[in-house]
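Morning!

This is the sequence you dropped in the shared folder:
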Amino acid sequence: DVQLQASGGGLVQAGGSLRLSCAASGFTFDDYAIGWFRQAPGKEREGVSCISNRDGFTSYGDSVKGRFTISSDSAKNTVYLQMNSLKPEDTAVYYCAADWVGCLAAMKFGFTSWGQGTLVTVSS
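The structure's back. Tokens below.
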């Protein structure tokens, strides 16, 4: 079974940083794309970032470009999301997801496997 475990959320002041982790198991990590999404109360789910472990392709949502960095450690089967210069509007539950088809297709058509979320709260 594909399992994804997101962690690293917490409370941080505006301008601060957090690093989220997505630990993966149950599939061939190097063949999959891992995406990060977020959902704030009363808002639709938003794609944040994606990395394709197969070829290293990365993508970012416009609202996080230049502030967030996605990376992957295949030795640990873990994808990280480094979040810098955090803003109150980054407050949300963050989820990681996995799919074999790659970032472009998965971000467009949907990821097949999802982990539980981790809450990020940015205070002003």
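Headline: The CA atoms of residues 32 and 55 lie 10 Å apart.

More detail when I'm at my desk.
O.
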